[in-house]
């Protein structure tokens, strides 16, 4: 088991953000810091992920409907409207050149999606800006993100938790491995794909007391 070299963040979604933060804190002993609201009607909370005790550009994003947003329609981002509890839904990687990866993947028959420009403000008012491919269609494979001049959230002053490993479990790993190949990812860049059932993500973290927890 290992930590993906290009891991940016793991997305854990739920139908209620406050309950999601509480669920995560109960299991890991770490309370996520408020992140901010998005124009998609969602809001998030964040925990940085350390590797062997060292800060790294990785984090967990806890995301749910923005409790302060007025809305008439269900929030569909990351399939939140279909969830009845917390779930790891997908993850992001940060390649060196997001546009080159998208172009190369399309030439090889896989479309990661268009690159979108998004932003949000932290609770302290700092504006964060990033570019990403929309990952809502293919949760099993990573979406791509580029923070540009913005500080990657995993390196910011937020609570930390040690990551031990991150995997994707698939009954038939071959199609996902072919998608990795189409993205042109080097070995170890994305989540390890292992055979098993049901299809799911497996994130292992280590609490401050040394206990490992599977999320």
Fold and architecture overview:
The protein is mostly beta strands. The chain has a single domain, classed as 2,3-Dihydroxybiphenyl 1,2-Dioxygenase, domain 1, CATH 3.10.180. Helix content is 15%, strand content 39%. The chain has 3 helices and 12 strands. It has helices at 17-28, 98-107, 174-183; strands at 7-13, 33-37, 42-51, 54-65, 87-93, 115-121, 127-133, 143-146, 160-170, 192-195, 200-206, 212-214. Strands 1, 2, 3, 4, 5, 6, 7, 8, 9, 10, 11 and 12 form a 12-stranded mixed β-sheet that branches. A hairpin with a 5-residue loop joins β6 and β7. The longest helix has 12 residues, at 17-28. The chain is globular and about 40 Å long. The two termini are 15 Å apart. The mean pLDDT is 91.
In short:
The protein is mostly beta strands and 215 residues long. 15% of the residues lie in helices and 39% in strands.
Which features would summarize this protein structure in a list?
2,3-Dihydroxybiphenyl 1,2-Dioxygenase, domain 1, 39% strand, 3 helices, globular, 15% helix, 215 residues, mainly beta, twelve-stranded mixed sheet, single chain
Q: Tell me about the biggest sheet?
A: 12 strands, mixed
Stated plainly, the CATH topology is called 2,3-Dihydroxybiphenyl 1,2-Dioxygenase, domain 1
Please count the helical segments: 3
**What are the secondary-structure elements, in order, as H or E?**
EHEEEEHEEEEHEEE
Q: Regarding CATH, which class?
A: Alpha Beta
Structural class by secondary-structure content: mainly beta
What's the average pLDDT? 91
Straight-line distance between termini: 15 Å
Strand content: 35-45%
How many separate domains make up the residues? Answer: 1
Shape: globular
The amount of helix comes to 10-25%
| DSSP strand tally | 12
The CATH architecture assignment turns out to be: Roll
CATH fourth-tier homologous superfamily: 2,3-Dihydroxybiphenyl 1,2-Dioxygenase, domain 1
Low-confidence stretches: none
Structural Rg:
16 Å
């Amino acid at each position: 088991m290992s930590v993906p070299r290009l891991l940016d963040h793991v997305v854990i979604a739920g139908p209620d953000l406050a309950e999601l933060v509480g669920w995560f804190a109960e299991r890991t002993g770490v309370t996520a810091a408020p992140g901010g609201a998005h124009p998609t009607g969602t809001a998030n909370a964040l925990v940085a992920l350390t590797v062997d005790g060292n800060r790294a550009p990785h984090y967990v994003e806890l995301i749910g409907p923005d409790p302060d947003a007025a809305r008439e329609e269900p929030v569909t981002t990351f399939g939140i409207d279909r969830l009845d509890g917390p779930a790891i839904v997908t993850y992001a990687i940060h390649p060196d050149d997001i546009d080159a990866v998208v172009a190369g993947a399309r030439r090889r028959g896989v479309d990661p999606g268009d690159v979108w420009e998004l932003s949000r403000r932290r609770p302290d008012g700092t504006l964060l800006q990033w570019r990403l491919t929309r990952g809502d269609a293919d949760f099993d494979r990573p979406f791509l993100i580029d923070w540009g001049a913005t500080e990657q959230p995993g390196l910011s002053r937020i609570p930390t938790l040690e990551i031990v490993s991150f995997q994707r479990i698939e009954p038939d790993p071959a199609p996902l491995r072919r998608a990795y190949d189409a993205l042109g990812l080097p070995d170890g860049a994305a989540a390890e794909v292992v055979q098993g059932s049901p299809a799911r993500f497996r994130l292992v973290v280590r609490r401050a007391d040394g206990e490992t927890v599977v999320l």
